[in-house]
Specification:
The protein contains nine helices and six strands, in the order ααββααβαβααββαα. By secondary structure, it is α/β, with parallel strands linked by helices. It has one domain: Uracil-DNA Glycosylase, subunit E, CATH 3.40.470.10. Strands 1-3-2-4-6-5 form a six-stranded mixed β-sheet, sandwiched between helices. The chain is globular, with a radius of gyration of 16 Å. The N and C termini lie far apart (44 Å). Bound molecules: uracil. Uracil binds next to helix 4.
């Protein structure tokens, strides 16, 4: 039988593969486009995301929107999701076993969306996507290729909310992503170089 995107979303909503399914209010699958050239992967839903069933709609999400919109990205250009689709209680980091339980769904999601570029935001996204425990500060800011995807690790926006001195680094990283996507003709070129937006979004 054919299996389409709405079937995938239903499968996610019914998932009980780990303990997080017992405490969640909503399963958080994605926001943006299902046909986007760019996938953005975070860690896991927080309280606002759990309430609304959408990723990155709290404080970190507002900063993420501000910076991506600053570069002219629209919700047609990206597909945002997380390593785990259910909120870890108290916003703790997902355990290796929770991340592992959720990985088959994320792998299916990547195969559905077929992004060209995948931005990994923060250590958790990097760790479970690559299997490497390296600090994000060491590996961020460089593209590498894996299974025909161009992968780009960078800081998580929640880290920038706590360490605003690294804001320019995240801004420039997103600029590199924009440049690469323009060079690959995945999005139109910007006529002017944008200025980094101030504020928290
Ligand atoms: N932080 C994340 O990593 N993901 C979200 O969806 C929200 C905050």
């Amino acid at each position: 039988m054919a299996y389409y995107w709405p079937d995938f979303v239903e499968e996610c909503k019914h998932c009980q593969s780990c303990e997080l399914s017992k405490t969640r209010k909503n399963v958080v699958v994605f926001r943006g486009s299902v046909e986007a050239p760019l996938m953005i992967v975070g860690e896991g839903p927080g309280a606002s995301e759990d309430e609304q069933g959408l990723p990155f709609v709290g404080q970190a999400g507002r900063l993420l929107n501000l910076l991506f919109e600053g570069y002219g990205f629209t919700s047609d250009d990206y597909h945002i999701c997380n390593i785990v689709k259910c909120r870890p209680p108290e916003n703790r980091v997902p355990t290796p076993s929770e991340a592992k339980s959720c990985m088959p769904l994320l792998a299916k999601q990547v195969r559905f969306v077929k992004p060209k570029v995948i931005v990994l935001m923060g250590k958790t996204a990097y760790k479970y996507f690559t299997g490497s425990d390296e600090a994000i500060g060491k590996v961020r800011g460089q593209f590498f290729e894996k299974n025909n995807y161009l992968i780009f690790p960078t800081f998580h926006p929640a880290f920038i909310l706590r360490n605003n001195n690294h804001r320019m680094t995240l801004w420039q990283d997103i600029g590199h992503v924009r440049e690469k996507m323009e060079a690959l003709n995945l999005i139109p070129s910007l006529s002017e170089k944008p200025e980094m937006p101030e504020g928290r979004g």
